[in-house]
């Protein structure tokens, strides 16, 4: 991965770039944004920013297109003649835009084309990235896998599930952070200062996730280990459920999914 280009360094694109920089310290990273001055604090001798998309396309073999959904198709239409089928591998990370729509904008089907959905935890190399493949004349699936493993874990899925993966993996960051915020607020109410509550809650959430990742168990099995009869955990859980905790979360996930599907 000597040269990686990110077209559109907004919040997600910049998170990807920062994650790649940590994993590939010797690689040259190229990022684009209309207002380049917003990125100057992240540049160095191997991290280059420009407002010229075409110049990045000329530099890089791997192009991650992280533009907004309402601009990405026009980008592909405008730059279709600059993509080289013998060189470029394109990975779109735009929400809700299918590989078929991208091919339609490019008016060609001989390009190495993938779709991915990482999340902003790429910044700290803890993203989960869902990946789907389209055409791949350059046979670079393993390289694409390696690229996104550099910023966390990956899962290959059917493209029909990409919107669902977006809700769980990308939007899910916000859901989890909102849950963490509520736990911190509860911690303050029972006596902690905000900084201490934040530290306790953040490590608790990290530990809970690692229990599932490393032990491979269903969450309910781990819950059972801390819910003793007549204990304080079970009464807290029951109060949350009486207030609609699980149903509200599920409804929020489904509502977000329906927004993409419209």
Notable characteristics:
262 residues; NAD(P)-bd_dom_sf; 2 domains; alpha/beta; amino-acid biosynthesis; proline biosynthesis; EC 1.5.1.2; Rossmann fold; ProC C-terminal domain-like fold; eight-stranded mixed sheet; pyrroline-5-carboxylate reductase activity
Describe what you observe in this structure.
With 262 residues, the chain is α/β, with parallel strands linked by helices. The protein has two domains: 3-157, NAD(P)-binding Rossmann-like Domain (Rossmann fold); 166-261, ProC C-terminal domain-like (ProC C-terminal domain-like fold), CATH 1.10.3730.10. The chain has ten helices and eight strands. Strands 3-2-1-4-5-6-7-8 form an eight-stranded mixed beta sheet, sandwiched between helices. Helix 4 links the parallel strand 5 (89-92) and strand 6 (112-117). Helix 3 (69-79) packs parallel to helix 4. The model has no long low-confidence stretch (mean pLDDT 94). Belongs to the pyrroline-5-carboxylate reductase family. This is Pyrroline-5-carboxylate reductase. It is an enzyme of class 1 (oxidoreductase). It catalyses: L-proline + NADP(+) = (S)-1-pyrroline-5-carboxylate + NADPH + 2 H(+); L-proline + NAD(+) = (S)-1-pyrroline-5-carboxylate + NADH + 2 H(+).
